[in-house]
Structure formats: structure tokens, C-alpha cells
Design goal:
The complex is a heterodimer of chains A (328) and B (273). Helix content of chain A is 39%, strand content 27%. Chain A is an alpha/beta fold and 328 residues long. Chain B contains 11 helices and no strands. Classes of the chains: A alpha/beta (328), B mainly alpha (273).
Chain lengths: 328, 273
């Protein structure tokens, strides 16, 4: 069963199309991730799906409920961890959790049980009675995730869950999100961190300029982006004979040679390196270095958008800045 | 698990949702007591007004209260105290009304807005909290004023002042809410707010009697809703009033209904983001 079904969802602000006719589905139990630079339309999409913004056109159903016509039902079935902090800084973690539970109509008995449960799950014991203001950013973020999960939503939205965290706190949060997977929950997350999408997601949607340019498992996305490459440096431009010999090998799909560096697209990974070296010694080719390069999700992003995610970021930020200025 | 899913789907959010309203009220109380500096600064200004404006002028007025346009034998401090209580309510209510939208700055508004609770209940909870704080502060000032020697009326009419406090608070929470929903995203919103609160306070009968004011200012004073709130509180607390109490009650009630109603409407149709 699909927990989320989106069809032609669009949001236009003035003359700027933030989200441009996107369609996708998320089956129950999956961790689905939107990967894209800032300003690609990830947060706007989440805002529409969580009923904060109305779509300009298109439709979406969360657990079968329409996001515009059946808002209350949608809200009851989802949990949200916003990109920006949204806990009350003057209240303690426990008070924030209790506030949330009451707003979602949990019974007093359920409230205490669930709070205990999420405190254990996210290892927040001992921090629950400290005002949020006095907690570290990592702990604050964990309380937000705990709150999002508190009502046992069927679909949990995580909007840039680890933004602003250092690498250690980020990895820690990843392991907690991974733990939620066992709780029969469906998760939709957005991120502009390649490693995050790669580590956490069952499927990734690459989103750029408001459009989904590709949806697949991280493995398949990488595979389409390119095969594994054995990079061989040949001394003194003596590689022609070597290249000719390699052309006869069936597990090499392509050879690029610029007189110095040779790139062999291979099937089979690192165990092909000795075989390449064997051919080199047969042909008497002096090799100075060998390296296996695997395609990353970064390559997939480059393949589908024509840019690296960092280049994108720069240009989008400029664009947003000019747009903000215009609005003032 | 099966049951939980069924009960989730079957509930429609009610216009008035008691437990969420209560927890929102509770949050306001906790915040108030946790930010002690704000609590103290909110009480400090009215006390300073009473001590450094009320007491000296009260001594001057002993030589002739006519000088202040007061009836013979009336102590100026008795006249001023209800005005200062009104001021406490005016300032804290404007701020309290605006704070619902102001939560946006701190991100908490989104958490509230996506909960399955009606906007009307959200507003009720928040405003009940703000009103409790506002009137609580006013009562503390009233207590301090009586300790300073203000003579309250010896009659149950004194209790009517609470009604005026509630209506005055509702009026200006409504105004604060309207300003915040319409201008809240502007830079320097706090400055805009004080641009409203200062004239509302000074162009009223809070500090001096109407008769003492120039005629042109008198017209403005009569248009100011705050005038009727303060005049009603004064009439109820110390028995001096410019207008009949019933007129005060009618006018401030009408203002409260219009401004709070309009504020509620704007809040209900506001986008959460």
C-alpha cells in the first residue's frame, strides 16, 4: 500500500515556480529521500504535504487523505521534524513532548508511555528536564525527532534533519533514524547531504529547479550515472599497445586514453586490477599508479543535473538572494 | 494498532478543544515565570509611574485638587492609580495579542499550526494565557497601589473593574493580533507596536482628567477605546468617572467585540508559513 501518492503537485510564488508538476509514490515502510540543493523545492514540497501551504495545482494523498480537503485527517497521521528549530526554548524537553501529545489528543496514560518510549529510543534520558535552550544543538534536534515520532505517525517527515550538526552528531542522528525503520514507519526526508541520502534512504528522488529528475535506489542511480572505472597512469606515453591489448577484454566496456592517463570502464570492481596489471606486464607497459573509482551518488547528481550539488548551491543562493531583495 | 488507526480517522477537530486550550494556557504561564526579567520589567514601569508621578503630584494636589481638574477633596493618587492599572493592561495585551504571530520568529508557531486543533482553539488558548498574565499584573499593581495609600470604593462595584479589565484586555489583544497578522513580518515590528501603544496611552484619560486637556485633544480622547476602559476601571475602583459607567461598559464592549473578532478572522485565514 502507498502511504503517499503525489500527482502533478505544483507551487508557484508570483513568477517563480518552486515546485513544478512533481509526481511520485512512497510505499509503506520505505525511507524515501529528496536530494537536492537549497532552493530546489524540497521544503516547499514538504510544506504542501504537511498542509502548511496550499498547492497551486496538483494533488496529493497521505494515507489516502487529500492534503487540501482532508487536512485534519492528514495531520493526525503524520509527524513532522521541521528544518528550523520549532521547540519552545524556555520549556524542558519533557514539557515540549507533553505539549505535543496533548495537542494530538493522546490520553494521559498514552502520554506517559510514549514519552518514556521516545526518551529511550533516542537516548534522551537524563536530558528531559533541562530547558531546550540549555541543551546542545544535537540534543535539541533529537528532541525534535522524538516529538515527531511521539504520536506514532504513519508517515514521518524529516526536513533536513541533520542540518547545522557536526559530523559526529549527524552520524548519531542517522543511527537513530535507522532505528525508527524497525518501528514500521514510513519516512520522507529531504537533504542536501549526499552521504545522508546514500546512508539512510531506500529510494532517492533527485530534485532540481522544482522538478524530480530521477527516482531510484541509491545503487541504481549510481549505476546509471556510470560504471566503475579503473584509472591507470602509464609512464611516458607508452600506452598505445597496452590499450590495443585491453580492447580485446570482454569485461572492459570503454577505454579513454589521453596519452598519460587511461580510464577503463570495467565490470567486476577491484578484482579486475590484477588482471589489468597482468595485461600491462604482458605488453611491457610501465605503470606508475592504479586506482579503482566507484561512482558515487554525487556522480549520479552530476549526471542528472549537469552540476555538482555544491555548484548548484552557489547559484541557487544567489538567485534566492536577488529574489528576496525584489520582495522587499 | 488497528484501533488506534480507526480512532485517528474518525475525529474531526472541534471548534473548542478543552485540553489543547489548557496546555496552551499552561505554556504561557510557564514561560512567564521562567523569564523572570520580563516579569519584573513589566511590573517595574507601572510602579515607577505611581511612585514618581503619583506620589509627588498627590502631595501637590492636597493644596487644591481643582488644579488638576479633579473634584474637591480627591487625591491625585486615587485618580492616577486606575490609569496606571489600565496602562499595564494596555501594554501587556497589545504585546500578548501580537505574540501569537510572533511565535513565528521562533518557529514554534508551525508546531502549533500543524496540530489537529482548530485555529479558534489555538487562539483561545494563547489569548487566555496572555489575558491571565495581563490581568494578573494589573491586580499586582492594584495591590501595590492600595499599599501606597489609594482609597478604593467601599462597595461591591469595585468588582466591576475586573469586567473592565477583561474587556480592555480583549480589545487590545485584538488590536495586537490584527497588527501582527498584517505587519508582523516587517522589520522593527516592535517599534511599530510602540508607535501604537504610546499615543493610545497618552491620548486618553489615564493620566489627567478630560477637562484639563485642550478641546481638540478632547475629541481624540473620546475616540480612543482605551479612554472608556480606563474610565470604567476608575469609576468602579475609586468612584470617579468622566462618563456614566454604563456608557463606558457599552463602548468598550463594542470595541472588544469588533477588534477581537477581526483579529480572530485574520488569524484564522493566515498562512502558517
Amino acid at each position: 500500500m502507498n502511504v503517499l501518492e503525489v500527482e502533478g503537485l505544483t507551487k508557484i510564488f508570483g513568477d517563480f515556480t518552486a515546485v513544478d508538476h512533481i509526481s511520485f509514490t512512497v510505499p509503506e515502510g520505505e525511507i524515501f529521500g529528496f536530494l537536492g540543493p537549497n532552493g530546489a523545492g524540497k521544503s516547499t514540497t514538504i510544506k504542501m504535504l504537511t498542509t502548511i501551504l496550499n498547492p497551486t495545482s496538483g494533488e496529493a494523498r497521505v494515507c489516502g487523505y487529500d492534503i487540501v480537503r482532508e487536512r485534519d485527517e492528514v495531520r493526525r497521521n503524520i509527524g513532522i521534524v521541521f528544518q528550523d528549530p520549532s521547540t519552545d526554548r524556555f520549556l524542558t524537553g519533557r514539557e515540549n513532548l507533553r505539549y505535543h501529545a496533548v495537542m494530538y489528543h493522546l490520553s494521559p496514560k498514552e502520554i506517559e508511555e510514549r514519552i518514556d518510549e521516545v526518551l529511550d529510543l533516542l537516548e534522551l534520558r537524563g536530558r528531559e528536564d533541562t530547558p531546550i535552550n540549555d541543551c546542545s544543538t544535537g540534543i535539541q534536534r533529537r528532541f525534535e525527532v522524538a516529538r515527531g515520532f511521539l504520536t506514532h505517525p504513519r508517515l514521518l517527515f524529516l526536513d533536513e534533519p541533520t542540518i547545522g550538526l557536526d559530523m559526529q552528531a549527524r552520524k548519531r542522528l542517522w543511527s537513530y533514524i535507522d532505528k525508527l525503520r524497525k518501528e514500521e514507519i514510513t519516512i520522507l526526508l529531504t537533504t542536501h547531504y549526499i552521504e545522508e541520502a546514500d546512508y539512510l534512504c531506500d529510494r532517492v528522488g533527485i530534485i532540481d529547479h522544482g522538478k524530480i529528475v530521477a527516482i531510484d535506489t541509491p545503487q541504481n542511480l549510481k549505476h546509471v550515472a556510470g560504471s566503475e572505472v579503473v584509472r591507470v597512469e602509464v609512464a611516458n606515453g607508452q600506452g598505445t599497445k597496452f590499450a590495443d591489448a585491453l580492447r580485446a577484454v570482454d569485461w572492459i566496456t570503454a577505454i579513454e586514453y589521453d596519452g598519460h592517463e587511461m580510464r577503463l570502464s570495467v565490470v567486476g570492481g577491484e578484482r579486475r586490477i590484477p588482471e589489468v596489471l597482468a595485461v600491462a606486464s604482458q605488453t611491457g607497459t610501465p605503470i606508475t599508479s592504479v586506482e579503482l573509482v566507484r561512482p558515487s551518488l554525487e556522480d549520479a547528481f552530476l549526471y542528472y543535473t549537469g552540476k555538482t550539488i555544491r555548484e548548484e548551491e552557489g547559484s541557487m543562493q544567489d538567485l534566492m538572494r536577488t529574489r528576496m531583495r525584489k520582495r522587499r | 494498532m488497528e484501533n488506534a488507526t480507526v480512532s485517528r480517522g474518525s475525529r474531526v477537530s472541534r471548534l473548542i478543544d478543552p485540553l489543547p486550550i489548557y496546555i496552551m494556557w499552561l505554556r504561557e504561564m510557564k514561560r512567564m515565570f521562567r523569564v523572570k526579567a520580563r516579569l519584573i520589567s513589566n511590573l517595574l514601569m507601572p510602579v515607577l509611574f505611581l511612585a514618581f508621578l503619583g506620589l509627588p503630584l498627590s502631595m501637590v494636589s492636597m493644596n487644591g485638587s481643582e488644579m488638576f481638574g479633579l473634584p474637591p477633596g480627591v487625591d491625585f493618587l486615587d485618580f492616577l492609580a486606575p490609569g496606571i492599572i489600565g496602562m499595564t493592561i494596555l501594554f501587556s495585551s497589545l504585546m500578548g495579542g501580537a505574540s501569537v504571530v510572533w511565535d513565528k520568529e521562533f518557529g514554534f508557531l508551525k508546531e502549533v499550526m500543524v496540530a489537529p486543533v482548530s485555529r479558534f482553539s489555538i487562539l483561545l488558548g494563547r489569548q487566555a494565557g496572555a489575558m491571565t498574565i495581563s490581568i494578573g499584573q494589573a491586580l499586582i499593581i492594584l495591590l501595590i497601589a492600595t499599599l501606597m495609600g489609594v482609597n478604593l470604593q467601599n462597595s461591591p462595584v469595585v468588582l466591576l473593574s475586573i469586567v473592565f479589565m477583561v474587556l480592555t484586555s480583549a480589545t487590545f489583544m485584538g488590536l495586537g493580533l490584527i497588527l501582527a497578522t498584517k505587519l508582523g513580518e516587517m522589520e522593527g515590528f516592535m517599534a511599530i507596536l510602540s508607535l501604537f501603544q504610546m499615543p493610545l496611552f497618552f491620548m486618553s484619560v489615564a493620566l489627567f482628567p478630560l477637562d484639563l486637556m485642550p478641546k481638540w485633544l478632547g475629541y481624540i480622547i473620546c475616540l480612543n477605546p482605551f479612554t472608556y476602559g480606563v474610565d470604567g476601571m476608575r469609576g468602579a475602583l475609586v468612584g470617579i468617572s468622566t462618563f456614566p459607567l454604563l456608557l463606558d461598559l457599552g463602548v468598550i464592549f463594542a470595541w472588544a467585540a469588533v477588534l477581537a473578532g477581526l483579529g480572530t478572522h485574520f488569524f484564522s485565514t493566515m498562512e502558517a508559513d
